[in-house]
Automatic annotation (TrEMBL), chains A, B:
PROSITE patterns: HTH_MERR_2. This is DNA-binding transcriptional MerR regulator. One of its GO terms (molecular function) is DNA-binding transcription factor activity. The keyword DNA-binding applies. It comes from Streptomyces nymphaeiformis. The keyword Cytoplasm does not apply. Residues 1-70 form the HTH merR-type domain.
Length: 217, 217
């Protein structure tokens, strides 16, 4: 299809498609003569993935390119999950390095208490330390004992995630499988956050209603 | 303290402080003469909260102002949680309205299956429908049956969240309580996402190791 059809089918403006081509997010089309380039269904699918990662996943163009590069390597879904993890942006302000380092032992303690096998180089360890530092500075302390029940819930969610990936493992299109891995990791994050917000609303309303019953005036 | 001391103590450049003052994110200081304005500890705390909401929570300046406005209303923590929820950005592309509407019944079905009391006007219903639309377009279908176990985990997390807020309810500084509510809602989201990523890494490594044992070559 021509770039105008690709634009229409994917709902992406032609200028944006050209930008993604220049930035290497989208593989080049097949040139047909000097002025015509043809694109395929894989370009439509890739544009939807880029849109999902940037608009819904909140990734920058650079981070999106890292994730797409990881996806293009022909790995199995579980290995891809690791590569996607390490491509994700986990910004830690360089000026804050010392303060973040102070929180690192709390993260180590949590990982040990959970018996988790997580690389010492995992960027998520530092990102978690940075988040705990923010909370601590705002006077909100979450110790290992407070975090453990959340970690148990995260472990249960991760089992569901990896079950889903393993179910996909016998499919044939490994690139599509790798895309699924990225989607399950990244796009389920907002889904889970939204479910928690709705559950918080329910929990708050339920307790407020209970507090208002005649037995509890 | 002078603005220079506020800058040093909070680690925020003077220009950024002035920007926050202009944008109404930071309450004005106390003028002392024509050229001197004094700031207090509440400004330090507020700057840390702004930084945490923007840098770690990923909120825009406009959304941060909405959340801070909600916090400044003297409500109880549970009510504040609701106000914070509704101030959060849940962008749904106007061009996508019809496609999002198509997913709304799936969200309704999930809320009904969980027996949740969630307002029909909750912005998180539409945001969830938009996320499900993204997944569906990428060929990743999560039906009600797939989402229910995640919703159960979200409900358990929300119980922990609201327990924590209720524990704070007997404290005296209601503004500080309201800040805690915003922090627990917003800043725990990256913490939970990071715990899930670490748990995914652990789960993947554990299964890969299991698959490599001599009994399962």
């Amino acid at each position: 299809m021509k770039i105008s059809d690709l634009s229409r089918l994917s709902g992406t403006p032609v200028g944006t498609i050209k930008y993604y081509l220049r930035e290497g997010l989208l593989p080049p089309g097949r040139p047909l003569g000097a002025t015509l380039t043809l694109y395929g269904d894989e370009h439509v699918q890739r544009l939807r993935l880029i849109r999902a990662l940037t608009a819904r996943g909140g990734l920058s163009i650079a981070a999106t390119r890292d994730v797409l590069t990881a996806i293009d390597e022909p790995l199995d879904p579980l290995a891809t999950l690791g590569v996607v993890h390490y491509a994700l942006p986990t910004p830690v302000d360089a000026a804050e390095t010392d303060a973040v380092d102070e929180q690192a032992p709390r993260v180590d303690e949590l990982v040990r208490a959970m018996g988790w096998d997580v690389s010492p180089d995992s960027p998520h360890r530092r990102a978690l330390a940075a988040s705990l530092m923010d909370l601590s500075r705002l006077g909100v302390e979450y110790g290992t004992g407070d975090l453990l029940p959340y970690a148990e819930l995260a472990a249960a969610a991760a089992k569901l995630d990896v079950d889903r990936l393993e179910e996909l493992d016998d499919a044939e299109d490994r690139l599509k499988l790798a895309e699924h891995a990225a989607v399950v990791v990244l796009l389920l994050e907002p889904v889970l956050a939204l479910l928690r917000r709705m559950a918080q609303e329910n929990e708050t309303r339920r307790r407020a209603a209970w507090a208002r019953t005649p037995e509890n005036p």
